[in-house]
Amino acid sequence: MTLRPSRSISKTKRSSIKRTGVSLLGLSLAILLTGCQTYQFDRDSVSAPTPQSYSTGTVPFTVVGDERPDWLVPESADVPEVVVTRTTEMAGAPDFDGLSFLGYMVSLTLIPYHEERPYADVYALTWQGETLLESRVNYSIDNYFSVYFPTPMMFLGSLGDEAAETAIATDYVTDYHRDNVLATIDQQRTEFEQLNPQTAEEIAAYLTGPGANSVYRPSAVLRLIDQAPETDALAYHAANSKIPGYIDLLPVRYQAWMIGPNSLRGIDLETRLAQGVNADQLLVQMLNAYPDQYVRSGYYTGMTQAHRQVLKDAGLPEGLVDRMTNEAPSNQLLAAAKTGKLRDENGNIRIPTQEELLEQLVRHDNQGKYMSPYTSDDVLAEWVNSAINANIGSTVGTGVGAAAGAYLGDKALEQVPFVGSFLGGAVGAEVGKNIGRETAISASGGWEAIRGSSDRSFDDLSSMARYLKAKYGHTGNFADAMDATRQIYPELAETLAQVR
């Protein structure tokens, strides 16, 4: 009796061992059948002298950005900022190895195919979008591949993980970059100290010559700024403002006048106002000059409240200065500019608030072409309530008159048997709209009742749609109000759909 459990346990163990063996055999067969691919960083492929001499270096800038090497030591705390970036990129297509491919085919993939995948590790120092120095180290990663046999594993490396080998390469070539960068900076320092540009002419020659791509370029620009005369310094800075990076190193009191698109900078606005150009005209030009959303270069990028305060203190109209921003002007603001509604009750030019711009779209009387479904008390007009109570929309399909009451009259009528075919085509659609509108007007109490119960109106459908959607689009009765209003003004449906 005591032997049976023992036999059962032994049998279970044997079964488990058998299953494990089958699993291992299956895994081995899978590897053999699918083959493998390995990657290996080739240290001998690095195209740069062996690093040896540099550890740290004093530089005429501070480092900003994600890459901040501790071997770049700023010479002082108030030197310009330079961005250091590092990227890894493919340096070309993988090299096809014909001899390796021949061995791969002849051996029926027993000998793995080998190719070299070229990379470039790039270390760059940039200032105000200009590249001052670049170190490029090329290397390759070997790729071994076989379809049916795991022979690539003989070459070690990373199994199927090229990114892992790229990371190893990135770490390995860091010392090469350090030597490249510091050696180049030493060379540029010697050149800058030998030339030692002092006058504005000498500095300008350096910036367009050897200093065009040098880490000493920001230092030279600072020297040029220091050459400004005590009188008429603003004109001096304006003359040099096209030099890349010049404006960014100016003190705020001068910088404020130089930021913005040509002809609309602070210095330009002051000149044109002195020449008698109307401030309203300048504001309209500023609004229309706003760039495409993907092209902001040269606009008011970098303008701060401190800059604007400088301009206001100098006497520029506040309405113009407040518009010196990268914020896109709204459609209401553009419309207000075209109609001259950018002045307050005292005649002073100003930028209206969004609420004020919205209110400029509506008339506060019933003399407009289109009656508002909401009164000045923000409640539904009586004629809208009448239309809702008449429930015209729900009666579509019961007859010509009822069908015509739908807010898309022509489309609704087409669904009514016989009537749809009768009203087919452009003429039928227009008849359907007219019949539907007249039916809706009648159900709302007649045109005199509609106008009489309205104390606000609009001159055009675009203003009506924008105002109603912005002002009441979030309210619970908006959908019912629009259904009723579209009975009177069928074309409102399409206009509403276009409002953003």
- Helix proportion: 40-55%
Strand order of the largest sheet: 3-5-6-7-1-8
- Per DSSP, the total helix count is 23
Average pLDDT rating: 80
Structural classification:
alpha+beta
Which class of the largest domain in CATH terms?
Answer: Alpha Beta
Protein name: Carboxyl-terminal protease-like protein
Can you describe what's shown?
The structure is a single chain. With 500 residues, the chain is an alpha+beta fold. It has 4 domains: 1-34; 37-187, Double Stranded RNA Binding Domain; 260-360, no CATH class; 370-498, no CATH class. It has 23 helices and 10 strands. The chain has a 6-stranded mixed beta sheet. The chain has a two-stranded parallel sheet with strand order 2-4. α5 (200-208) runs antiparallel to α6, α8 (252-258) packs across α11 and α15 packs across α22 (478-488). Mean pLDDT is 80; it is low at 1-9, 24-33 and 394-432.
Layout of helices and strands:
Elements: H1 3-34, E1 36-42, E2 57-59, E3 62-64, E4 72-74, E5 81-90, H2 98-106, E6 113-127, E7 130-146, E8 158-159, H3 162-172, H4 174-195, H5 200-208, H6 217-226, H7 233-240, H8 252-258, H9 266-274, H10 279-288, H11 305-313, H12 318-322, H13 331-338, H14 354-359, E9 370-371, H15 382-390, H16 400-404, H17 409-414, H18 419-422, H19 425-443, H20 447-452, E10 457-458, H21 461-472, H22 478-488, H23 492-498
Parallel strand pairs: 2-4, 3-5
Antiparallel strand pairs: 1-7, 1-8, 5-6, 6-7, 9-10
Helix pairs in contact: 5-6, 8-11, 10-13, 15-22
